[in-house]
Amino acid sequence: MPRDLLTIVIAVFNEAETLPLLQPRLSAVLDDLAANARVDGRVLYVDDGSNDDSWQVMQGIAARDPRVALLRLSRNFGKEAALTAGLDRIEAGAALVLDADGQDPPELIPQFVAKWREGFDDVHGTRTVREGEGWLKKFTAHGFYRLIGRLSKTPIPQDTGDFRLLSPRSLAALRQLRERHRFMKGLFGWIGYEQVAIAYERAPRLAGKTKFNFWKLWNFAIEGITSFTTAPLRLATYLGVVTALVAFAYGVWVVVRSLLWGDPVAGWPSMMAVILFLGGVQLIALGLIGEYLGRLYTESKQRPLYLVDTWHPAGGVSSPAGIREGDSHADGPSFARGQGA
Ligand code: UDP
Ligand code: MG
Predict the structure, then answer these.
(1) Which of 6-10, 119-123, 142-146, 293-297 comes out lowest in average pLDDT?
(2) Which of 19, 50, 77, 136 has the CB geometry, 3.0–4.6 Å to 81, for a possible disulfide?
(3) CA distance 287 to 149
(4) Alpha helices in the chain (DSSP H)
(5) How wide is the angle at C-alpha 93 spanned by C-alphas 167 and 171, nearest 5°?
(6) Using CA positions, which residue lies closest to atom 23 of ligand 1?
(7) For a substitution probing ligand 1, which of 101, 103, 137, 144 has the most ligand atoms within 8 Å of its CB?
(8) 140 lines ligand 1 (CB under 6 A)
(9) In what order do the strands lie in the sheet with 68-73?
(10) pTM value?
(11) What are phi and psi of 145, to 5 degrees?
């Protein structure tokens, strides 16, 4: 029976404390997969411009384990870009995305692999419990998944993060989506193919703090909605239509009233109310258009999604500097080529 290849992609931003705790668990899982599932596993850590010791920790890990590859970006590009960078480097086999903080238990990976073997292309973890997260975060996350589920035509599974396995053809499909505003959960959903969910309990962070505060999450939610639906623009249209109808009815009433009962000077308060209301509605609609226009603007610049500082392929390369590729982004040596060299 041929052996399959699986690359575990981990975006890392200031996780010097969690990596040493995660790596032994990962390596145990890789041993298990190699022995019992005919899967050769590799780990690819993507350093998303960390400013703590993460890169040094990662280099230490890679020096000890030939199954570990490292990729360092030129600065912090955000988790979605870091994951894209990692996924772009995989030339063969399936990919599995995991958080560096241990919230996605690596021990579940064999279950993901089993589903992949059954023929599924996208095996994703669905959270049943979120431990160690405040009620407000749970509540807003819940609300967000439901809202986007209703608005977007692309199916986006509820309560599903980035913990997922992608078959080679899903991975190839994802590579074709080069948009700058990357709402990964939506992109995964857009691809389609055979999807299946695995329920799991989301563990608390091993150490350190979340990188996503409420402001970031709010922007992330706007990103998701604007990337996957133009429903807000339609809403603005409806709001405008309703406002116009009400204004028209009120206008008729004002004319009729002054014809029937004469025209004493109308009240200033009602006038102010109408002006302010209309001003507000117009600004909201303009803001909405601006959100989409701004996205068009960044999209039109066609910048690369990320820049690579250092690529350190798997295979126990001892030189800490690795291979320099100042300006490459999407195409550079991948796992297979890197190992052959
Ligand atoms: N992360 C990243 N770049 C960033 C922010 C976060 O690569 O700019 C990584 C982080 O190291 C972790 C994952 O994304 O592996 C999830 O981050 P975090 O645990 O802070 O998010 P949460 O689980 O609280 O949503
Ligand atoms: Mg986390």
Answers:
(1) 142-146
(2) 77
(3) 23
(4) 19-36, 54-64, 79-88, 109-118, 135-151, 168-175, 184-191, 214-228, 231-261, 268-301, 335-340
(5) 40
(6) 210
(7) 101
(8) no
(9) 195-202, 122-130, 160-166, 94-99, 4-12, 39-47, 68-73, 308-312, 323-324
(10) 0.76
(11) -65, -35
β-strand pairing of 68-73 with 308-312: antiparallel
**128 or 250: which carries more pLDDT confidence?**
250
In 3D space, the residue among 186, 283, 284, 188 whose CA is nearest the CA of residue 229 turns out to be 186
- Is there an atom of ligand 1 within 6 Å of 11 CB? yes
Which amino acid would we find at residue 221? A
Tokens of 129: 């419990």
Out of 77-86, 258-267, 278-287, the most confident range is 77-86
Residue written as token pair 């989409």: 292
| Amino acid, res. 94 | A
User: Is any ligand 1 atom within 6 A of the Cβ of residue 88?
Assistant: no
Question: Mean of the pLDDT values across residues 167-183?
Answer: 90
Cα radius of gyration rounded to whole Å, the chain: 25
Question: What is the average pLDDT value for the chain, to the nearest integer?
Answer: 84
